[in-house]
User: Fold ornithine decarboxylase from Neoroseomonas marina.
Amino acid sequence: MTPKIAQFLRDHAPATPCLVLDVDRVEANYRRLKAALPLARVYYAVKANPAAPILERLTGLGSSFDAASWEEIEACLAAGARPEAISYGNTIKKASAIKAAHEAGVTLFAFDSEPELLKIAKNAPGARVYCRILVENKGAEWPLSRKFGCELEMARDLMVQARTLGLDPYGISFHVGSQQTSTAAYEGAIARVAMLFTDLKEAGVKLRMVNLGGGYPVRYRAEVPGIDDFGNAIMGAMTQHFGNDLPEMLVEPGRFMVGDAGVVSAEVVLVSRKGKDDPVRWVYLDIGRFGGLAETEGEAIKYAFRTPHDGTADGPVTIAGPTCDSTDTLYEKSNYRLPMALTDGDRVELLSTGAYVTSYASQSFNGFRPLAEHYI
Ligand SMILES: Cc1ncc(COP(=O)(O)O)c(C=O)c1O
Assistant:
């Protein structure tokens, strides 16, 4: 929690549940990433948190943007981003959205299949395209599975086809999975990209760009490697495989840029037990899976909690949200402990919740309003 957020919570005690996000911390994270990877251009993954104050601050800093939809492109443009600074990075796009992006001046598009490539050729003629390849997601706490990317051989053929379709075969992208805790994941992925660069050069297609994706982690309950460790591993692998002929490098950080800039302030609604002697208390909060904590699914992302009783005796808990849905249980198996003194009405903070929370919140499941947001 940044001092600015702590001060805001003290001074305003805003109604819960709400997210309070320190935009200065986003700027600091952007600068830290630039320092760790000075040769890479930063495309902020808007999906992590699309709030206008974040997009405006990043635009002012010269950041570029990775957009997942036409609506995110509109948000970037409204924040003052130039269309040339926007990458339409989703490999699943409606033809109408590709057309709208092209007409707005966006020139960079991702794909991972032939039908998508044909759609881009038709609706964004002459665009720069990059193909997303499948890579290992081992080490990621929020893996992206096989939904995105294609095999190397297919990527090779599609990049050759891109040229014949009148597109500009610009580069290759990958994503090693979100909250990636292993620097080796990037090294392995870069080795695969390098093989593709060589194959395509032999086929007469000279690629110019590697999109290293997102994945850079945030500290939740456990330590993670620092951004410098990722920078060193990435630059080591790039130099090993490309030597002096380094291609342009893009990074698409989402979680790293905004995660630790935000705190969710919530209220304890109920503390109860299932039996008189049950050692485990159930702690129900006024925010849960449907209030924005979607990444607690499978207890994948383990947020750290702060309570007014920290430092006093604690005991095991199951933590759940307020709705009448049994999947709205956040942590049952992850050995969470909270103070014995915790009671209904207490305010608690969920730390490092600036990424992938507000945008996941449902409209009004069980009648609850979406999470309030304060950008300071
Ligand atoms: C194409 C793309 N780029 C970047 C990101 C951001 O990833 P992260 O938040 O792990 O940095 C995602 C996340 O899903 C993505 O799909």
Notes: Residues 45, 48, 66, 89, 175, 178, 213-216, 252-256 surround pyridoxal-5'-phosphate (CB under 6 Å). The radius of gyration is 22 Å. The chain has two domains: 50-253, 260-375. The domain at 50-253 is CATH 3.20.20.10 (TIM Barrel).
